[in-house]
Amino acid sequence: MSPTAKRKLPPSTLVLLVRHGATPSTGQVLPGRAPGLHLADAGREQAARLGERLAAWAPSDGARPRIAAIYASPLERTRETAAPLAAALGLRVRVARGLIECDFGEWTGEALKQLVKRPEWTTVQRYPSGFRFPGGESFVGMQARMVEAMADLRAGHPGETVVAVSHADPIKAVVADAVGTHLDLFQRIVISPCSVTAINYGPGGPMVLAVNSTGALSELAPS
Q1: Which residues form the domain of 194?
Q2: Cβ atoms within 10 Å, residue 146
């Protein structure tokens, strides 16, 4: 290739980030990476509706790019959330460790009503970039891990649409990175159970198309 020849830029990848459905401890406990936490009945209903919504958004008639792959963190609640959509589209759920929940270390399993009483909680909310969970992961490390996971998805699926089922804080961290917001402001982002956050990763950088969407996705397209 001559020095003046133009290189073809890789096509964009649309990543649909999904938070897992509600569990029996959602909003009450910091479950972290502890195994054995499954979806509650309400969470299973949310996952079923999510499957219907995304399957309808990606029809097989070529009206929009079909969903090429479905990924989930290794934890049960994310894989259970992904299952109805995978069944509807005839795909398997691929486990991607980079999508896993933040490692809360010694705080894993603690009740939120007790954690908010700790002096460190102010740091978690106002200065997360300077906090590491005792015996666990830092928010900075979590964000870097998730950004790398997005890069891996783009590299593996150029020009395609993929679903990535993860957890609230990791998704918030990805959104903050995508819009160029400092990590210390990421707590202002809301990611609800079974919501969809759509980010298009293209040659010019990420473009956020939707955040915390629980409604129709018919207009997902860069303007």
Answers
A1: 13-213
A2: 27
